[in-house]
Request: fold
Amino acid sequence: MSLESKKQFELELDRTKSNTTKKLYMETINRFDKWLDNNSKEPSQKSVREFLNDLHGQGLASSSQNRHLSALKTYFRKMRNEELAVESTQKSEKEKRPVIEGEDYPNPEKVKELIRNLDGKFLNLRDRAIFCVGFGAGARRGEIVRADREHFDPPHITILRGKTRGNEVVDHRRKLGEELSGYIQEYLDARSDNNEALFITRKNDGVERPHPNTIFYMVKKRTGQFLGKKYNPHALRHARASQMARKGVPMKHIADYLGITTDVADRTYSHLTQREMDEVPTAMS
Reply:
């Protein structure tokens, strides 16, 4: 990275960015330039990924990593008129390998046991119902928060998904089955409010939809209590998908069920189907 190119970039930032953003971006560029010198590297997509990986290894917060990434992408786009197709380290690393039971998601049978053991108090009923939707319908935490009472039509639930199609919201009707639907209905019967949200949290003598982070920490807490390891809500989607893959459900149907592309489903879950196939006795055994 030449001194001249950095000066040109700084002039461009003077025109397009605030002073604070300019300062942060230039700090990133200088830090990356120093990293290149120390590691005898040339600027490239690969070196940017390695640089971000080093930052991740140093425990840098995701928000700071994203800021560094944004600065570098802006630099290369302006100076070379090209977009660096790189992503944050955590996301790219997750997409490189299939999910692993016990590490990325809990055993589906253990999730079923957890759901059956959550009963009694109102909060337990709500949390159990959330697990029913997260596991039973493969819903993301944001989709769980957006769900309304009217979307629950036993034994089905409609999930509003918009992630894979930009701003378009697509209705996905999913069959939960009698048992999971019964748990959700038990929770709704225990409520005395008229809020349209399927799930609520109490606040200031009233009720409102829970924040997605409320779902996140609740799932981690409950899985830690019952399974001995804390999993995030996304792990419930993986558990459901792995269950379907092992039962021979085609990848196209799994992808549609989760609201993801077939390529992503195949890369993430196809090894589970293959493992089951490997366990089939040979013709002459």
Strands lie at 152-153, 156-161, 170-175, 201-203, 206-208.
